[in-house]
Design brief:
Blueprint: H1 3-15, H2 20-26, E1 32-34, E2 39-41, H3 44-48, E3 54-55, H4 61-73, E4 78-81, H5 85-94, E5 99-101, E6 106-109, E7 121-126, H6 132-144, E8 148-152, H7 160-164, E9 175-180, H8 186-191, E10 198-202, H9 214-221, E11 228-230, H10 236-251
Helix pairs in contact: 4-5, 6-10
Amino acid sequence: MTPSALLALLAEVERGALTPEAAASRLATLPFENLGHTRVDHHRSLRAGLPEVVFAAGKTPEQTVQIFSSLAADGVDVLVTRVDAATAQAVLARHPAAAHNPVARTVALRQSPQASEPRGHIAVVCAGTSDIPVAEEAAVTAETFGTRVTRLYDVGVAGLHRLLAVQEDMKSVHAIIVCAGMEGALPSVVGGMVGVPVIAVPTSVGYGASFAGAAALLGMLNSCSPNVSVVNIDNGFGAAYTAVLIARASSKPSRP
């Protein structure tokens, strides 16, 4: 249930086009729907501005399909992250209008009215090609929720000239997500070049001493750029969720 859908429902009752009983029936699953294995949070859009997102890892394909269908019936944009091939196939069989991104490991269904202009603009930057799966999870998440995304991939500090070549592309955005493994230096460099929030995502890319992303995580937490904040290892989704909220707030028209 989105804020606009709730207002439309109340307007129907006010006009007499819908009985209070019928409206109550539509609202029966608020604030959540109990599927037995999952309590689907239909109220989240009203509270947080964005609907619940499904984390598919650890769930069976059948469970994921049931949760996806419950959210889709509510009319919101639906996103599932960390899907495997079997889960993606099961969701698409029930919802053929959804889009599967195998690199990002996501399945997304856009249902909200397509606005003429996206709500905010972010950049998703990654250090190397090996970081693209995490970067794509971030990009797909942001696009699913109506934010414009500029992708700037393979611009790591091992070839600083590549980053300098895209500096202009980072000047018009409201927030920047930076995904990097190895030593995780890229967010600090980007943070020193821009005047917007930088959300750093350490990736589990690197040789043994990178400790599956722990080295990048610690490096990012110790960034000397004060506009850098850090999410968990490989958490492109969490970075994008935060970036979308920043972009939406930053792109709102100022009050006179």
